[in-house]
Amino acid sequence: MSRVRTRPTRDDTREKLFEAAARVCEEQGIGGASIEDIAAAAGFTRGAFYSNFKSKDELVIAMMEEHVEQSIRRMHELLAEHKTLPDFINALRNMDRSKQDPLGRSPLLHMEMILFVARAEKRRPELAKRLRARRKLIADIVETTAKNSGKNGILNPAWVGAVVLALEDGFRLHRLIDPETPADSFLRAIADLQRAIGIPSS
């Protein structure tokens, strides 16, 4: 008779460490969070941490990589179902945020990680790589939805992608500073841009 597996898999362990790191880093800041605190919050020993990551830096980079990969996958799935820009924006507005990864759920943690990576020159290429991936994702969405809306060729998708990404991060920061900033500010701004370039809202 075969034994039932009771030990967590490597993926399970990494996911628990990501969730624990998100909680600890949000409370203490990435600089103040220790490996011991993160491991304890996940219910693991320090040794379990080091069996998955060589350092806190490696954990942070892995969390960012997971966030970007999940975002790309989720947005492409959404785009496959909602092919025009108005439909896509409405789908984004109604998306279940509780299913997002820790970075997607927490604007504070997102900004904390950007600052943590940007402060050290050796980490910046990793951050830049993820930034370019996010920018390309948005450019692909702009290009596809514009084409499906009959507006192909009127936009520079790469530039619009950069503008949209800057808007997203900007409104995320504004909402952290001023809670009265409307939660849907980013999507409202995108809808305004949509109208400005002549794409109908329905």
UniProtKB/TrEMBL annotation:
Keyword annotations: DNA-binding
Molecular function as annotated in GO: DNA-binding transcription factor activity; transcription cis-regulatory region binding
Signal peptide span: none
TM region(s), chain numbering: none
A Pfam family this chain is assigned to: TetR_N
Keyword Repeat on entry: no
PROSITE patterns registered for this protein in UniProt: HTH_TETR_2
Residues annotated as domain HTH tetR-type: 11-71
Claim: Translocase is one of the keywords in the record: no
Protein name listed in UniProt: Transcriptional regulator, TetR family
Organism: Bradyrhizobium lablabi
